[in-house]
Amino acid sequence: MSAEDLATAEKKLIEEGKINEEQVQKLCDVHASIFGGSVEEINGGQTIE
């Protein structure tokens, strides 16, 4: 799954009210810890919408 596909899926879940932005951020932190680095390092300090 590409980062773009993941972002699209997350956005859809937020729009449907199944998950909130804070929960998505927690998942991002988990993924970053598994794969190394931090969300900030991976995203270059940018917010993904």
TrEMBL record:
Domain DUF438: 2-41
Listed name of the protein: DUF438 domain-containing protein
Organism: Sphaerochaeta halotolerans
